[in-house]
Amino acid sequence: MSDLPPPATQRRVAERSAVDAATFAREVVTAYRPVVLRGQVAHWDAVAAAAGGDRAMAEYLAGFATPGGKPLDVMIAPPEAEGRFFYADDTLTGFTFHRQPVPIGALVAELLRFSESGTERPHALYANAATAPEHLPGWEAANPLALGVDAPARLWIGNATRIATHYDTSINIACVVAGRRRFTLFPPEQLANLYVGPLDHTMAGPPSSMVDPDAPDLTRYPRFAEALTHAEVAELGPGDAIFIPPIWWHHVRAFGRLNVLVNYWWEHRSSAAFLALVHAIEAVRDLPLAEKAAWRSWYDHLVFAPDAARAADHLPEAARGILGATSAERTGKIRQFLIRMLQRP
């Protein structure tokens, strides 16, 4: 496993300089492609603090602690895990880490101790998606994103860590404050080549690929070689940001002894789609092939066709019910219909 940058021949994520809110909404979010935004948050006070070194960064973070403040959810892995948060063994029943609530002051003090003592193989520590309003009040005012994103800032604070390849169901922008991060991304259509793990027993929500991109076992996971030909890599430093569309797979590796990343998730449009997928596994996957083909025509017509939203145009608008246009009223009708149908004997 190497700390060197990836080979120059590996495809790089598209890059552009910092953008304003209008450009972000018009050109970045709508493209459904990952994009690196160089220097997007270089003006943040936090990035300036990080430029002063680990102690300055630790002191800046500790300054947001409040008496009796909510502790962070910290993932802790032993040195032998080499910073990888993953399943502990082939049974997939346990993990390489445990979780523990830790006050922010205690976390940054421990990270600083590891940094200044030069500990060769410290425990891997990773504060997991700590929302700024709850855990670091005042952070957002001091470090505004200014991209028109309606979502709280979430902080990820730790040392050298490796987060398994996973996807998010929300639109995501991640901003590096301290340290360096490498993102390795795979487009959604590489799903079959990523060897996805359990859907209902995961590290932190979404399912993950079973393959370690830093040391892939191509004997065990041969199709991953094809996924690598579609991979895109981004190297980010302090002040840089990356936009990641929903359902794009990404592996994240943090380098350095004190790393800080801030991300924003918004428009959780795909969460219900995952639940629908899980229910389809129960209801459709194991039907006879001919019957599955019959249901495929329903899904294609009502869900996946480009004009699926017009499939009920032949009905009076008042009679379209759950086939009607997207609205809060239709969402309520669908939920009531599902509850009623699922409760039938």
Model description:
The chain has 345 residues and is α+β, with helices and mostly antiparallel strands. The protein contains ten helices and twelve strands. Strands 1, 2, 3, 4, 5, 6, 7, 8, 9, 10, 11 and 12 form a twelve-stranded mixed sheet that branches. Helix 3 packs antiparallel against helix 4. 31% of the residues are buried. The N terminus is likely disordered.
Strand and helix layout:
Elements: E1 14-17, H1 21-28, E2 35-38, H2 45-50, H3 54-62, E3 72-77, E4 84-85, E5 98-102, H4 104-117, E6 124-131, H5 132-135, H6 139-142, E7 154-158, E8 161-166, E9 171-186, H7 224-229, E10 232-236, E11 241-244, E12 249-266, H8 271-283, H9 289-304, H10 328-342
Parallel strand pairs: 1-2, 4-8
Antiparallel strand pairs: 2-11, 3-5, 3-6, 6-7, 7-12, 8-12, 9-10, 9-11, 9-12
Termini separation:
54 Å
Number of helices: 10
The helix/strand series, from N terminus to C terminus, equals EHEHHEEEHEHHEEEHEEEHHH
The proportion of residues forming helix, as a percent range, comes to 25-40%
Beta strands, count? 12
Give the mean pLDDT. 93
Key features of this structure:
single chain; 345 residues; alpha+beta; twelve-stranded mixed beta sheet; 10 helices; globular; disordered N terminus
